[in-house]
Each structure stands twice: as structure tokens, then as C-alpha cells.
Design a protein that fits this description.
The protein is α+β, with helices and mostly antiparallel strands. Helices cover 27% and strands 22% of the residues. It has a 6-stranded antiparallel beta sheet, covered by helices on one side. It has a two-stranded antiparallel ribbon with strand order 1-2.
């Protein structure tokens, strides 16, 4: 599995409508569903079932559920050293848990899903860059 393979898999999801808790290419997904779908294409069966979650799950639980799961299943890398094909986690407010995830397509762009829009490739501008809390490589990716 190469970084280019991961980016190509993520790009296939572009245009998929947003659907909370979903993970079906061209049908619907949220940010976690996008990464779950790329995992299935690149690696196979998901390593654990995603628990049910509400749109405000991170605030309500106060736990680093997404960050903890990423540490269990991906290889942690320095957030400033991410490359294409790496997974980025975001924290919207300093005192809240990380609750957004996307796939880097370059040092300046990523693919992600968010409410009210289809999966899209966007620039990692200042708004996003300052919210990156962690970065991870897919297990087994060829560097």
C-alpha cells in the first residue's frame, strides 16, 4: 500500500453526501465514515466497530474517543510531519476533545466530510492547520 493508493481511495469518496454515522461511498458518510471506508479499501475489515455517537458526542463525553482509537489502529507521527495519505485529527476548541478527521492529500490539502456538504478536497489553511491535534499513518503504508 502506497501513499498514492490511500489518496486515490480517499478521492473516490469526493462528492459523497454527508450522512451522520454512515460509511457508504457515493451514498453517505461523515468524517469518521470516510476514514473507515478508506481503511476497508486499503486494509480490509475494520479493526473494531464504531460506537453509536451523536453530533455532540465529544462535548458530551469529555473523552478523547477518536484520538484514543487512532492511537490503537494507526501509527502516530508528529503532526507537523504529515504527508499525503496520512490521517489528521482536529480539535475545534482547546478544552474539547478531538472530533474531526480527514485524509491529507498533500502537505497543503485534505479530503474530509462535514455536515451540510459533500465529501470534498480542501486546502489546509490557517483555520484547519491551527486545529490539527495529531497525525497518523496507515499501518503498513510504504514510506
Amino acid at each position: 500500500m502506497t501513499r498514492a493508493d490511500i489518496v486515490a481511495a480517499a478521492r473516490r469518496w469526493v462528492g459523497t453526501p454527508y450522512a451522520h454515522q454512515a460509511s457508504l461511498i457515493y451514498v453517505g458518510c461523515d468524517c469518521l465514515g470516510l476514514v473507515r471506508g478508506v481503511w476497508r479499501e486499503m486494509i480490509g475489515e475494520e479493526p473494531e466497530a464504531a460506537p453509536a455517537y451523536t453530533p455532540d458526542w465529544a462535548e458530551a463525553l469529555g473523552a478523547e474517543t477518536l484520538l484514543d482509537a487512532a492511537h490503537r489502529h494507526f501509527r502516530s507521527i508528529a503532526s507537523r510531519d504529515f504527508r499525503e495519505g496520512d490521517v489528521l485529527l482536529f480539535r475545534f476548541r482547546e478544552h474539547l476533545p478531538a472530533k474531526h478527521i480527514g485524509v491529507a492529500t498533500s502537505p497543503t490539502h485534505m479530503i474530509h466530510a462535514h455536515a451540510g456538504a459533500c465529501v470534498a478536497e480542501v486546502a489546509i489553511g490557517a483555520h484547519w492547520r491551527k486545529r490539527i491535534v495529531a497525525a497518523f499513518a496507515f499501518p503498513g503504508v510504504a514510506d
